[in-house]
From TrEMBL, chain A:
Subcellular location: Cytoplasm; Nucleus, Nucleolus
One Pfam family per UniProt: RNase_PH_C
Taxonomic placement: Eukaryota, Metazoa, Chordata, Craniata, Vertebrata
Gene Ontology molecular function: RNA binding
GO biological process: rRNA processing
Record-given protein name: Exosome component 7
SUPFAM superfamilies for this protein: Ribonuclease PH domain 2-like, Ribosomal protein S5 domain 2-like
Annotated signal peptide: none
Domain Exoribonuclease phosphorolytic residues, every copy: 32-166, 196-261
Subunit (UniProt): Component of the RNA exosome core complex (Exo-9), composed of EXOSC1, EXOSC2, EXOSC3, EXOSC4, EXOSC5, EXOSC6, EXOSC7, EXOSC8 and EXOSC9; within the complex interacts with EXOSC2 and EXOSC4. The catalytically inactive RNA exosome core complex (Exo-9) associates with the catalytic subunit EXOSC10/RRP6. Exo-9 may associate with DIS3 to form the nucleolar exosome complex, or DIS3L to form the cytoplasmic exosome complex. Exo-9 is formed by a hexameric base ring consisting of the heterodimers EXOSC4-EXOSC9, EXOSC5-EXOSC8 and EXOSC6-EXOSC7, and a cap ring consisting of EXOSC1, EXOSC2 and EXOSC3.
InterPro entries on file: ExoRNase_PH_dom1 (IPR001247), ExoRNase_PH_dom2 (IPR015847), ExoRNase_PH_dom2_sf (IPR036345), Exosome_comp_Rrp42_subfam (IPR050590), PNPase/RNase_PH_dom_sf (IPR027408), Ribosomal_Su5_D2-typ_SF (IPR020568)
GO cellular component, one term: exosome (RNase complex)
TrEMBL record, chain B:
Keyword rRNA processing: yes
UniProt name for this protein: Exosome component 2
GO CC aspect terms: exosome (RNase complex); nucleus
Protein family (similarity comment): Belongs to the RRP4 family.
Gene: EXOSC2
Domain S1 motif: 42-123
Pfam families membership: ECR1_N, KH_6, S1_RRP4
Alphabetic keyword roster: Exosome, Nucleus, RNA-binding, rRNA processing
BP GO annotations: rRNA processing
Amino acid sequence: MASVVLSDAEKLYIIHGVQEDLRVDGRGCEDYRCAEVETDVVSNTSGSARVKLGHTDILVGVKAEMGTPKLEKPDEGYLEFFVDCSANATPEFEGRGGEELGTEIASTLYRIFSSEGSVDLKSLCINPGEHCWVLYVDVLLLECGGNLFDAISITVKAALFNTRIPKVRVLEDEEGSKEIELSDDPYDCIRLNVEDVPCIVTLNKIGYRHVVDATLQEEACSLASLLIAITSKGALTCMKKIGKGSLDPESIFEMMETGKKVGKSLHASLQKVLDEEESLGTTRQKVGFLG
Amino acid sequence: MRGHGTYVDEEKLVASVAGAVERVNKLVCVTPLKTRYNGEVGDIVVGRITEVQQKRWKVETNSRLDSVLLLSSMNLPGGELRRRSAEDELAMRDYLQEGDLISLVAVEVQSVFSDGAVSLHTRSLKYGKLGQGVLVQVSPSLVKRQKTHFHDLPCGASVILGNNGFIWIYPTPEQKDEEAGGFTTNLEPVPLSDREVISRLRNCVVALVTQKLMLFDTSILYCYEASLPHQIKDILKPEVMEEIVLETRQKLLDLEG
């Protein structure tokens, strides 16, 4: 993870500030930074989204392709995640430097989406056992400004919301060979139900308290963090501890409660923004990368 | 005659960077907005120690090369004036470690090395290691050149405006006469009222920089006053930011006019 070097006095200032619920930029321990969400920024994908959370910038593209379903689950499609930490974010990611972080993030995403009911995989099935939709979700890290996991999960949810999978019909011949026919209308597509897609909330332990949405400086002061995946209904689907420090079991319960509360409001505001964007339709002015 | 960073476009000479224009007789210079710090003699900079080497420290000052701080140019604790011995060399890490923040002055002509690296020294006991506070990194071209860069703002905090774009906001120290050159760091918790002032100032500086306004003590003070009706964390919202900076700009124009 990209990190900054801080002097001991600066770290002490941050830790004392968190203790009194006043962080360096005036936020409380449970406040998120201002986030900008924009969908449909990449034209040759089935769905895409870009999220800017403070100095963290993430771009996600979803491509739907036809493949064969997995042997254990013949009537379901599946998702494949790939995370690319570009050298744009920090010089540490140059060459193969970002691979370790990328695989860590990808494996966390696999774990979160492996829980039953996060995405309706049965809707991705075309022909049980033969054809299904495979969604390749590519995450690109453009800038590292702290709190990567949260931003990535928000972007993935927004991109899946924006994904449009073309409607396909399977025709059977007399001999039994199947043909796949694509609908003529390019706007005839199926949308994914992202209601139960979880979002990650990272809680960093700083001193005796924990903070949500830490900046790079705050992450440098925190030795242990808890990553939890929360659905919009407040259900906790996955939990992971990162960092070399230790966490007291009682504080884990407190962090979980805070995470649930914060996660629910995060889902609510994200859904509001996505619905607003959707309602603007084709009249929406795209800001993209030059804005 | 044209220099670096220009090109000819339809028989007109155009600069390839956008920024503030300076004219000296027939020489026209454009200082770009986003640039690295170019050291000049007499500048005050706030830097961070990146390396501890033999008899010197390497300091990161947002310039093209790391600046150099020689052991002989650094204040000794208590303000002693003596030749630095071998023991001082071994104890370098006790003075300044990697990651420490320090405020200094850029030194004489011989110090801007041929490759552009800057040599630093501490002029008096006022300069030295910095204690608790908040660092904001901005573009060097937004910091106005003034007589003093150490300001004690009436709102209750102090500010050091480094010419290299590093702005250090810290609680005003209680005793002014005890100047130890920064070797005794005050590690007591800063009271909540001071913290609020510091956070508000930090957000104001970020707001001014986002709206491309020059940073100097008056502009920061006016911005602080304009931001008082809002909550500290709301200052970073785009609409509130624009409103506050507009008011600041208006006040500054009134001051000039």
